[in-house]
Amino acid sequence: MTQPIRxxxxxxxxxxxxxxxxxxxxxxxxxxxxLIARLYFLQVIQYDYHSTKSENNRVHVQSIPPSRGLxxxxxxxxxxxxxxxxxxxxxxxxAGDWRQVLDVLVEVxxxxxxxxxxxxxxxxxxxxxxxxxxxxFELTEEQIARIAVNQFRLPGVEVVxxxxxxxPQGAHFAHSVGYMGRINESELKSLDPVNYSGTHHIGKTGIxxxxxxxxxxxxxxxxxxxxxxxxxxxxxxRTDPVPGKDIVLSLDIKLQEAAxxxxxxRRGAVVALDPATGEVLAMVSQPSFDPNLFVTGIGFKAYxxxxxxxxxxxxxxxxxxxxxxxxxxxxxxxxxxxxxxxVNASTRVFDPGYYExxxxxxxxxxxxxxxDGWVDLDTAIMRSNDTYFYDLAHKLGIDRLSSYMxxxxxxxxxxxxxxxxxxxxxxxxxxxxxxxxxxxxxxxxLILGIGQGYMQATPLQLAxxxxxxxxxxxxxxxxxxxxxxxxxxxxxxxxxxxxxxxPSSWDKVNHGMQQVMHGARGTARKASVGAQYLIAGxxxxxxxxxxxxxxxxxxxxxxxxxxxxALFVGFAxxxxxxxxxxxxxxxxxxxSGVAAPVVRQVMDAWLLGxxxxxxxxxxxxxxxxVTP
Length: 628
What we know:
- The protein is of the alpha+beta class.
- It folds into two domains: 61-249, Alpha-Beta Complex (Penicillin-binding protein 2a (Domain 2)); 253-305 and 313-618, 3-Layer(aba) Sandwich (Beta-lactamase).
- The chain has helices at 10-45, 47-58, 98-109, 113-124, 141-149, 185-190, 206-210, 212-216, 253-263, 292-295, 300-308, 317-320, 330-340, 377-383, 386-407, 429-435, 442-448, 459-470, 504-518, 591-607; strands spanning 59-64, 71-72, 78-90, 133-136, 157-166, 180-182, 201-203, 220-226, 232-239, 247-249, 268-273, 280-286, 349-351, 354-355, 364-365, 373-375, 481-484, 536-542, 565-572, 579-585.
């Protein structure tokens, strides 16, 4: 049976269509309403927020690093300046896939995988957003051309012209002026992020580090308008940076060169001071190095050669070299004995060639094994008689001896602007009890009296102790900066002067030191031959390795680097001191034979004119007539 055919209901279909149209219209109107509401919210309610954000995307604040202050020697010779150079910078936020960009850079510039690792390390270093990070310095013309040709492949990469530090005198002032280097992660955390924005280098050592705030200056800013790709369209506002302050050092390049020549390529240190002001006239640590290697980043191989060298060129011997001072401290010990009243100028001690403590059979040897017989203070200094100073140290005792040596600056930092300086070591009863958990023994006091034992001092400390003898106890801290933008450095923590009960004690010690140089039996009389001025000096020999009781030093049985250090300190003219010099020659063995001639050459370079005659300002320093 067939089904009936249903007829089409046109009215029902029409109602369905109308309903769908109505629902669609409602949905469309609703969506349009939501869109209008959203537009109203963004354009009206949040107008201030989005207009500010848009402006920030269009306008950027860029830092302008200040030009670093220059450094001069006392005669106006530039020892640290700023040289224009081209560097390659990457802005990570504009580079997109910056790792791929670095790969392209290495390919374009034909660099090594080690360079690629270094680049990534530098880019990863934390900096402010949108701040360019320099990754390659001192670009050649060929490298600049390669980058220009491939610029379309290097988004966020640009060649920047900037000033970099340069040391035209090379190794001459490496240990005093120091050098600059790239800011590392730890330094970045301690620096002012605002003032150092845009700055990528900082003083690492020497004057460059100590006076970093003065040399750096104040950062400047400029507001720039950029397009969507970050390209600068125009500068809207600019605040110029404040350049760093220039520093004039007390160092003299001619005296520096004379001191280096006097050392003759030997390992050692020379420091010369003006006792009246504390100005450092020369500061030599040999061997030295070229500080320019560190400015833009020294290579691994080059740094390893410097670091691992047995001669230690990076080591500042003047400030960090710790050596037993030997007999160079005997003048200070003599002052202590006179001021404390345990001896006077006429006190005599018999020297049979050794000294024995009461109730002990150990013999403390004099350097002259045959002895000098009866010795007074003047002869003891002239002959550097150990027996006399053993006896004097025993009479003083460790407590008084340590206290007096501290007054002369031993065991503490003495400089005003040399942060690398080591305090050295002036032992005491309390020091040994704390560090060694042992009592102090009388024999240890004896060897301290001749500058041996636990005592350690830097060449700068020996120079300052000698300057105090020359100055009759007046303290002037050694300093390298003569003026900072025309202003003299201020000592905010001055040391108290050494005031003696009898001021004539200074003259008595001074005379003994003159006899060292000019006396008929003076230990360094050969170094004073032909001198046109009076010299007061004291030699010293510091043991590197100990020798057994009763044995005699035999240089042929000792390795070269185990031989004694040679030291000498002195000032001149002795009756009107204008220069103090301390010299240490590593493994030089003889203070009077090796170090004393170096002192004499440095003094001649300072006190004599180009014609080889005494400068007019020192003409009243009458030479002493020496009997052959």
